[in-house]
Amino acid sequence: MPVIPPEFDANPIWQLDQAKLIAILKDSGSSTFQKAIACKRLAQIGNKESVAPLAALLSENRLGHYARFGLEPNPDPSVDEALRNAVPKLKGRLLMGVIHSIGVRKDAKAVDALGKLMYDQDVEIAQAASASLGTIGGPQAGRLLRDGLNRTKIPVLPVVARATLVCAEGLMRANRAQALELYTTLSGPSMPKVVRLAAYRVLNAAASRSAG
Amino acid sequence: MKKETGSISRRGFGKSVAGAGALAAAPMIVPSSVLGQAVNQAGQPVGQPGVVAPSDRIIVGGIGLRNRGQQDLAAALADPRVQFVGIADIRESARETIKSIVDKRYGNSNCVIYRDDAELLAREDIEAVMIATSDRWHACMAVWAAQSGKDIYCEKPAAITIAEAFALAENVRRYGVVYQAGCQRRNVPNFELAVGLARSGKLGKLLAVHADDWSRTLTPLGHSWWPEERPEPEPLVLDWDKWLGPCPWRPYNARYPDGGRSQFWDFHAGILEWASHTGDICQWAADCDHTHAIEYDPQPGTSHVNCAYANGVKLIFRGDGWGDSGTCRVRFEGTEGWIETGDSGKIEMSDNLRKYHQTVTMRGTDPSRHIQNWLDCIRSRSLPRANAESTCNAHVTSHCAYIACQLGRKVTWDPAKRAFVNDEEANRMRSRAYREPWRLDSLATNM
After folding, report:
1. Are B436 and A96 in contact (CB < 8 Å)?
2. Less crowded by CB within 10 Å, the N or C end of chain B?
3. Partner-chain residue, chosen from A101, A135, A154, that has the shortest CB–CB distance to B4
4. What number is the ipTM of this complex?
5. Residue B257 resides in a domain
């Protein structure tokens, strides 16, 4: 085992309880390393109390991802609210990260806001919002993505198309008619070839099942 | 996130087009070097000898082919069906090395180099990719390749979290591509024999399967420290941000890219270093390619994790080693007999099974037959031995065992819900948040 510099040793931080970890996050004298490890530990043990202190780091370049690392697996619903509230305050990569986490958490309350971001001037934000819409899924996300197939262009369109595939897949269980409609749209000539082929496969399988 | 075709830089697009042009021009004359028969690491011929017309070749690109990746590449280049046309790597030295190997093989200078994998994946002429980046990139890169419609050979571990394993399998299925994980022991004769005897009932009712593993002590507790910060190299030499990829940011130190990454939890999958092989073989033997073990019980004071499948077969991950059949050992026990083997090729078995014994000289690390199987399946559009679904399921089992090790207690897994039963702490360990701008694309299910 190598010699670990004490200022970069995670062990003492890992042993702390939630209150002390939160204190590290709030202390302006804490190092980036200390805050990073506190975020990682809170991913495992953090509850509602840790949400606001972690969310306060979402706008920090080096720590924004660590904050999401701590927030994303926390099942408390206040995490979703904190991530939604962060969206209008962030831009660039940090905003992308928050949008991705919203998608991972499948926050249905964020669908309409993501639908607007699908047309953001920042192409990477538009792509992130599209992908998260697909992951969240559901009828409303399906409607927004279908509009996006008509209104977006390369390089956002391929991401919207892939997201629509994901959304359609989720809808096949609960809303088969809407799902098949989305697959039909995705099989159109203006869609990326790989998405078209994927949609064809599902439509062919569905047709075979109906015929059988 | 992956870059879309439309966002490729002018420089990148030019390189891609130049590569495609070179490819179109080059095969008019077939170099004699591509007419030979494929051989394995022992120099023994494998596969079909003969000439493959250029138009019938599988156009292959590579991403991150260092060390193990070069062994995979050698096996692919030895197959006359393969035309390798481009390499992407974040390291300048690795890019140049692979280009040199490939160009020497074909007797030309046509192998195109890319710093950005997105440029390689955007090439429509490339049908298949070989991925041998470091572990943290495997699943993400394979998902991008699937979304680009490429067939995939990807080194193991295929995924460093449970969520990645499911995302991988879903995307491969969704896009209908052929995926082979680098779990090559599924195509090594001594392992095939052992699995065949277990699955055909020659051991009687199968009771237990044993999987050699390693690195179980790797936890975020002791392996999240940061070595001293050093100046980052020039991005053209080594792109540090891309090297980190979806993992948490940390200051640069040459210790990570120069071989020390496996000492850090952020970049590694713990027991899956070997369990992605041995757990995979055991799951195959237990006829559980379609599911996961449901109970995981780390044994205090030992290096064993006792697991159980719903069909009653026990799976024991063992970090203590046993026998003398080399690394990555497996052992299968039934009511009527037992068999064990490992990378050396040596096979030991109960006396009643001696008539099935074979002498195997192929080492467990040899990827040649596994690459052949992948190429066969690309041609036939059938499932390779280490396909995405079986790989996903074996990885989920191994990850569950690793999580039980890290928690130091028994956990129960529900394969249908893709979740641990009444265990929030364990459930939180199923995934790790990706660092922006990367994301784990397109997971339609609840996990």
Report:
1. yes
2. C
3. A154
4. 0.97
5. no
